[in-house]
Amino acid sequence: MLARQLIDSVFKPKTRRWKGFDVDVELKDQWLVDLNAIRGAHVVSVCSGHSNLGPDGITIAGGSQYPSVNFDVSGLEFAKAMTKAARDAQTKADMVSWGGPYENWVLYSNGKPRDDPHIFDADAFKKYPLESCRHSVLIDSKVPRRDGDDVQVAAWWEGLIQRLQRA
Ligand SMILES: [Zn+2]
Q1: Distance (Å) from CA 116 to ligand 1 centroid
Q2: How far away, in angstroms, is 42 Cα from ligand 1 center?
Q3: Domain residues of the chain, as ranges?
């Protein structure tokens, strides 16, 4: 009962089916096709941004008011290149790198050892150098989604996709 109430209190956005996945209705097929076609990168999550959420609000799938896309990326150099290419005045991008025995510790942020790693192994940075980690590239618009801004949001996705395709 409690779990059900908690779930109901989290915003559940309107989704549609795309290639077997539930995606936010505002995401256009072409953006999904293009994001999924970037070689060496695998889309982990993508969110249209939700205008009815406040600054700290999240959806049941972890989305926020900001349009966002997260990738798993093979290869450190490509992850760095994607992160750099994604960044612009309207776009925040961070590379996080996972190591540890199960590759589930975030050891590095933007290529630098985290100063607050919640890990138990004092030698982790020696045992799991940046080059041996798997990498994620986390991209968010700096502009929250608002009603009636479809044209600006489309321009953001299309600009981002073009920069990523050139990375
Ligand atoms: Zn979403």
Answers
A1: 29
A2: 18
A3: 2-166
